Amino acid sequence: MENTETKIMYPAALRPGDTIGIVAPAGAFDHMKLHRGISVVEQMGFKVFTPKGLFEKEDYLAGSDEHRAQILNHLFLEPSIKAVICARGGFGSVRILSLLDYKTIRESRKIFLGFSDITAILTTFQTRCGLIGFHGPMITSLADANTESRDAMYKALTSNRKLIIKPGKGLTLKSGVRAGTVTGGNLATLCHLVGTPFEPDLNGHILVLEDVGEPHYKIDRMLIQMKLAGCFKGLSGLVLGSFENCGTLEGIYRIVERLFKEYDYPVLAGFEIGHGATNITFPVGLKATLDADNHMLIYHSPAVR
Fold first, then answer.
1. Which of 47, 103, 182, 199 falls between 20 and 30 A from 111, CA-CA?
2. pLDDT digits (tens, 9 = 90+) for 184-233
3. Active site includes 116?
4. Which candidate in 67, 135, 205, 275 is catalytic?
5. What is the distance between the alpha carbons of residues 267 and 264, in angstroms, rounded to a whole number?
6. Does 210 qualify as catalytic in the annotation?
7. Pick the catalytic residue: 93, 108, 116, 242?
């Protein structure tokens, strides 16, 4: 299990005219959606760098493990690139974790943005590099992202103000107020890190969970596996995002209430985070206070400097 004692590394805020590099560390992607997403980023005032080999494909992956890792390492090494945004999730991030240059990634202090399968990289950057990452829209999902998702992403990557994130339809599953370092993302991806060298230590953390296309029994199975592995004992709080095409939210909330009833930390549901129509960007690896009673996640400091 990875410890979280690494000093926090704040990435530099994006400014108009900065260059963003695109990486595909996991699955192959739709080329048309990528180009549409690039247009969205350019409309925000940024330049976009498309590395050679980005469009390679090997079965369901965006090229070999070595190829995908090499592109990611290069983007963090290249000084002209100020941020790295993933093209798509899918599957494959966990396959390259042992191939990444964490020393260079830590020293570069660049913005890294993605979600879904990219959760594996975000949490590993947090534990191995202390780098604050960003869970939010990727290039292909930006193609169809709504205004709220785009604006939240821009604000998170450019603003030097503390972020306050409120759920669209907040529901307090367990009352309370508690502070901790925010981490997490996709439930299935986090579950598959359990027992590996890249499993994050969740003690003292506010854990965010979301997923897509998983029926109730699979949600139950993943949560009970993580619970039996001791993942939830030392949490400071639990945040539930979108569970798109996962059955009724009421059913999911009943599963959570049953499995987390023995813990005394706050649980707040209803955040528009993940695979839903709105995907609000949130920093990973930064301290915040979860106020389940007033439906807020309040960060203690800006995520970028």
1. 199
2. 999 999 999 999 999 999 999 999 999 999 999 999 999 999 999 999 99
3. yes
4. 275
5. 9
6. yes
7. 116
